[in-house]
Amino acid sequence: MRILIVDDEQAIRDALGRKLQREGYDVTLARDGIEGLRAFHVEQPHLVVLDIVMPEMDGLTVCRRIREVGNKAPVLMLSAQAITEEDIIEGLEAGADEYLVKPVRLNEFVARVRALLRRVQIEEPSADEAIYDDGYLSVDLIGRHVRVKGQRIHLTPTEFKLLTVLLENAGRVVPQRELLEKVWGREYIDDVYYPRVYVSQLRRKIEPDPANPVYILTEHRVGYRFERQDK
């Protein structure tokens, strides 16, 4: 698995790179956003680690450029300050999948990288479960395509995994902790705000009226349920 690390701090860049190499990953290092974007197009990595604040081109801009070409590699953002829900939303809108605060603990970093890579490896559904289409929303779980009113929309790997888990459990309330484990991994079991933030973003992309959802319904203090809409 190829991983690209883009960070203007050499000590951090080298430490993260060495750790991932010891874990068996193929690592490419870049010292700023422009160099990182060039390396991305050449290497086509399976995962990208991006510092947010960098000279020339910041991490969020690099992330947007990556998503503009339709690449779905998960993106892990590194932040030098405490992360708020607003930060997560800004990152999601840019196409990021995850945040990690510096100073980075190496074992936690590797655990999050593994969780992100697992997230894009979705078990193939059976043929009768592979497609959902009600005329408004269409989801192809094998092809990993989502369309709203016939127009293809972009979901990050995490958003797609979240939609997949909810769709595969349509009609059943999926508790928050179960969502955290199935979508994010056991490493995230205590990050209880994640489902709320990501569900909100997913609704903005697929719901006819995000303020009054018909697909992803909230069961207060329990979890979320996907409601199929018959044609």
Features:
single chain; 231 residues; alpha/beta; Rossmann fold; Arc Repressor Mutant, subunit A; 2 domains; five-stranded parallel sheet; four-stranded antiparallel sheet
Q: What is the strand and helix layout of this fold?
A:
Elements: E1 2-6, H1 10-22, E2 26-30, H2 33-43, E3 47-51, H3 59-68, E4 75-79, H4 85-94, E5 98-101, H5 106-119, E6 131-133, E7 137-140, E8 145-148, E9 151-152, H6 157-168, E10 174-175, H7 176-184, H8 193-206, E11 216-219, E12 223-226
Helix pairs in contact: 2-3, 4-8, 6-7, 6-8
Strand order of the largest sheet: 2-1-3-4-5
Please tell me the total number of domains. 2
CATH class of the largest domain: Alpha Beta
Count of distinct strands: 12
Class computed from helices, strands and strand pairing: alpha/beta
Low-confidence stretches: none
Indicate the mean pLDDT.
Answer: 88
Query: H/E element string?
Result: EHEHEHEHEHEEEEHEHHEE
The helix tally amounts to 8
Q: Report the β-strand fraction as a percent range.
A: 15-25%
As a percent range, the share of helical residues equals: 40-55%
Rounded to the nearest angstrom, the radius of gyration is: 18 Å
Largest sheet: 5 strands, parallel
CATH superfamily of the largest domain: Response regulator
* Morphology call: globular
* First and last CA, distance: 42 Å
What CATH calls the topology of the largest domain is Rossmann fold
CATH-scheme architecture of the largest domain: 3-Layer(aba) Sandwich
